[in-house]
């Protein structure tokens, strides 16, 4: 009887040991499976986050560098094309005179003089003066090309980014801010020379001489023609540049190079 009890106890111990071994094995298996699952999720998450970070601005130096270079180059090319087109258009005959949007008219303080002279039969003298001012501007405007080129070359990436994200004439406004003073200083001597060559001063004196003869006691104001024509020529230049810029931004046909298509969209 005692042998039977011992035998039963041994069997119980073996069963218990096997149960513990099975439970341990199952626990180990479950832990292993759990760790594998965690590892897979972690890897996938890490890869996803890596991809996400690559797409965030500033997180990939290579991508950012390439985008910055393309952006700056594209903007500079657009500005070069726009300024070249504007200068070429305005510097040809009737570039100013034949375009009502930029045509240089009589200064405000002598406009009444022109109206009076026209009514007295001296329209020819008035027209000759207006034409001479526009011819002087057409002759001087190529001077802008080098100044614009300097402004383009000194443009920073931050400038280019702001211009690209700005309105249809953001680059024109940038040019106006950066080059107006230099353009005026450069333009004025050229305008003065052009005015002498095309006879602006003579035309003005002829017109005012007619006025003095017709209205002996008429009051005339002093007029700085050089400054007036220079300012009006620059106004016309920036107006035309704004038109060229807007075309590149809004009209796919105006994007004449692959770089322009890349930056401004096909």
From TrEMBL:
Pfam families, alphabetized: DUF4197 (PF13852)
Superkingdom to which the source organism belongs: Bacteria
Protein name: DUF4197 domain-containing protein
């Amino acid at each position: 009887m005692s042998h039977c009890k011992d035998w039963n106890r041994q069997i119980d111990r073996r069963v218990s040991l096997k149960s513990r071994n099975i439970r341990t094995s199952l626990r180990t298996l479950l832990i292993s499976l759990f760790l594998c699952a965690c590892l897979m999720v972690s890897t996938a998450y890490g890869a996803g986050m890596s991809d996400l970070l690559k797409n965030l601005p500033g997180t990939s130096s290579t991508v950012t560098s390439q985008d910055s270079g393309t952006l700056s180059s594209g903007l500079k090319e657009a500005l070069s094309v726009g300024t070249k087109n504007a200068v070429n258009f305005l510097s040809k005959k009737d570039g100013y005179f034949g375009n009502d949007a930029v045509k240089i008219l009589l200064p405000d303080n002598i406009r009444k003089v022109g109206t009076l002279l026209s009514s007295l039969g001296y329209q020819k003298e008035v027209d000759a003066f207006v034409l001479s001012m526009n011819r002087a501007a057409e002759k001087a405007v190529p001077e802008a090309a080098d100044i614009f080129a300097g402004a383009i070359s000194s443009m920073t990436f931050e400038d280019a980014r702001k211009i690209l994200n700005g309105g249809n004439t953001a680059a024109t406004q940038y040019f106006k801010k950066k080059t107006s003073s230099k353009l005026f200083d450069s333009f004025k001597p050229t305008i003065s020379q052009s005015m002498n060559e095309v006879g602006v001063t003579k035309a003005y004196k002829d017109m005012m001489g007619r006025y003095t003869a017709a209205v002996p006691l008429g009051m005339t104001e002093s007029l700085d023609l050089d400054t007036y024509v220079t300012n009006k020529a620059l106004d016309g230049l920036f107006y035309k540049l704004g038109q060229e810029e807007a075309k590149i931004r809004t009209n796919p046909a105006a994007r004449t190079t692959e770089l322009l298509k890349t930056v401004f969209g096909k």
